[in-house]
Amino acid sequence: MTKIFRILAVSGSTRAGSANSAMLATARAVAPDGAVVDIYEGLRSLPHFDPDDDRDPLPAAVADLRGRLTEADAVLLCTPEYAGALPGSFKNLLDWAVGSAAMDAKPVAWINVSSSITGAAGAHASLRTVLGYLGTRIVEDACVHIPVRRDAVGADGLIHDDAVRDQVRAALIALATT
């Protein structure tokens, strides 16, 4: 029996119809054989990070996040940029991950969907810094910039452009074969 490679996908956007979330749903749809993309949807339910609360018993949403991070073989992130950096709710998620070993040495990649002139460079520079503090192993070949406008997202919440889907699949293969 072939081992399944489990990728936890986390969107940094809370916006309905987000191109970031659509990218991760598309990644789930085009995942290569042997890989399963599980989308984390608890971003909104995480409490604000407070070091005093980073002890047992953890808030249920935090325990769920850390458990899912621990169980994953790799993590795929897709986040927008707000005010030149990571969105606060997404940074909050990463702050909760710092207090555990859930991402230590874990293969991590991101897909940057920004179609802005800056390409969300500030957010992804910040993301790289935070992932360093988390002790992750960034898989450079799986970190890609695939600009996607919100109007490219279909009514089903997926991106149907074949070139985009091929790039996403290639990134997943790179992440899963590290």
Automatic annotation (TrEMBL):
Pfam families: FMN_red. It comes from the Bacteria. Residues 6-146 form the NADPH-dependent FMN reductase-like domain. PANTHER family: CHROMATE REDUCTASE, NAD(P)H-DEPENDENT FMN REDUCTASE LOT6. This is NAD(P)H-dependent FMN reductase.
